[in-house]
Design goal:
alpha+beta, OB fold (Dihydrolipoamide Acetyltransferase, E2P), 4 helices, 25% helix, DNA-binding, DNA binding
């Protein structure tokens, strides 16, 4: 009998697809939620609300800090005590908030620097500095 060989790239592809999946409780079953579909996570006491692509919302009975341990650290960043956002869905950043899919999410000073380190921000000189230049 000849040995069967597995294509390494296929295994890596399947592993990546599995890593993107979370199975969250929904009534008497666990439903699959793709992390890449999660736009933001909103914590409220002992539950979190997942806001997904397509306007879908999923509520999970757990604390935000506990749920955060399941999220891909590359995709997600905490921006306030009650919110974690997917970096891929940030539309705009203001001094005290980030905009995700038209929703203004508070950006706490405590988390601002961590967010800025994760993004490529194009920094321009201030207008007053440019006015002094010839």
């Amino acid at each position: 009998m000849t040995p069967q060989y597995v294509d390494v790239s296929t295994v890596k592809s399947h592993s990546a697809r599995l890593a993107d999946r979370l199975y969250v409780p929904d009534h008497k079953q666990y439903v699959c939620v793709l992390q890449s579909d999660i736009k933001l996570v909103k914590g409220a006491r002992s539950s979190v609300e997942l806001r997904l692509t397509g306007g879908v919302r999923q509520v999970v009975s757990t604390h935000l800090s506990q749920f955060q341990t399941y999220l891909n650290e590359t995709l997600f960043v905490q921006v306030s005590r009650s919110y974690i956002v997917n970096l891929l869905y940030i539309d705009a950043i203001q001094p005290g908030s980030v905009e995700v899919d038209g929703l203004k999410v508070p950006l706490s000073p405590k988390y601002r620097e961590a967010l800025h380190r994760r993004l490529t921000l194009v920094r321009l000189r201030r207008e007053s500095q440019r006015a002094d230049s010839p």
